[in-house]
Amino acid sequence: MNESLYLAPKQTHTGTISLPGSKSISNRILLLSALSNQTCHIKRLLDSDDTQRMREALSLLGVSMIEHAADEITVQGCGGRFPADSAQLFLGNAGTAFRPLTAVLALMNGSYQLSGVARMHERPIGDLVDALCQVGADIKYLQNKGYPPLQINAFKDNLHRTLSVKGDVSSQFLSALLMALPLTKQAYTINVEGELISKPYIDITLNLIKRFGIEIKNQNYCSFSLPENAVYSAPAVFNIEGDASGASYFFAMGLLGNAPITVDGIDNNSIQGDIAFVEIMEQLGAKVIWGDGFVTISPPDSRQIPVFDIDANHIPDAAMTLAIIALATNGTSHIRNIASWRVKETDRIEAMSCELRKLGAIVENGDDYISIKAPSQLKANVAIDTYDDHRMAMCFSLVSLLGVPVIINDPKCVNKTFPDYFSLFSSLTD
Hints:
Layout: E1 4-7, E2 15-18, H1 23-35, E3 39-43, H2 49-60, E4 64-69, E5 72-76, E6 86-90, H3 95-106, E7 111-115, H4 126-133, E8 138-141, E9 150-153, E10 162-166, H5 171-180, E11 188-193, H6 199-211, E12 217-219, E13 223-226, E14 237-239, H7 244-256, E15 261-264, H8 277-283, E16 287-291, E17 294-298, E18 309-311, H9 319-325, E19 332-336, H10 348-358, E20 362-365, E21 369-373, E22 382-384, H11 390-397, E23 406-409, H12 421-427
Parallel strand pairs: 2-15, 3-14, 6-7, 10-11, 18-19, 22-23
Antiparallel strand pairs: 1-23, 3-5, 4-5, 7-9, 8-9, 11-13, 12-13, 15-17, 16-17, 19-21, 20-21
Helix pairs in contact: 1-2, 1-3, 1-6, 2-3, 3-5, 4-5, 5-6, 9-11
């Protein structure tokens, strides 16, 4: 049986925390380094379940990695082709490993099986597979059509140089294509069908690909042009910035708590879209100081958090934290344009709705929104189910700052991206 964590009502005190490296950047950098023709020394690599799955997979594919510390390794690039021409890869529930590896391996000449935990086998991948098959990939579904696990066979170039991918399911599909297609050394055009969600994550991908020597032209997120004869060349050293999504919980502590909270490892030069969460904290009354490599968030003088109505398409992960902040208002708040929540580690719209109702909130939801009416008094000692979803656990820890005790079931699910979360949380509270 999974353990539970009891959190008594807490007050914050002035403090500073150092963020772990960004998950989104860490797994992208691991893969790009492995595909490059250089050796890359990676510093501040996130040490978590998701990055462990990527590292294990790369090792099975023949990539040489030297670990200097849990957050510092050297990766010897393979020049665009993995030494192993067959492998069975288990990737847990790591979408940032599963999707790009699917695309990369689909453009190689081997035989590979990719699988994960039960929830990963419920997360759709058909749109990515369809896009890859447009250019000659040979991918078979081993269980249910459109979902992992997958059998990937040797790529057969069919000379098609234009492909399309749906933009409204997961930006990871487009990111995977952008990282993988340069390996063919052919010029491709990727057209996006419909409105592209989570554009800031595409910006991360394009930024990192450029730092590895390849520039992709972005036509207003409607199409992307990849150059021919592209080669990944890794920088000698890459320092990964702190995780902006993980920072959102501590930014919220600064808003909801009693004292300034400083977050080291990130600033307004971040390439991560979730840094925009700081602007929302400011809109809700928090006092913000931007520094060189840090952000300090202090509570508003009024102590009253206003209701809000926010389009969170650009910050889907950090937006979950807003659902808890809504409990500190005196009315109904709305979080919109979050359809991607439904295909994450769990159906986050349904999971969040269920757990908020336990606390006494009145919640409405739809395909791409959630509306939360704060109760006059939160229910105490509620046991929050976390659905094996790290962000559910971290979000609901903030309830303890709202004057009631809360119980977090399966708190170790935070190991997916932020193993030290609860110890850091405790270091800032009394």
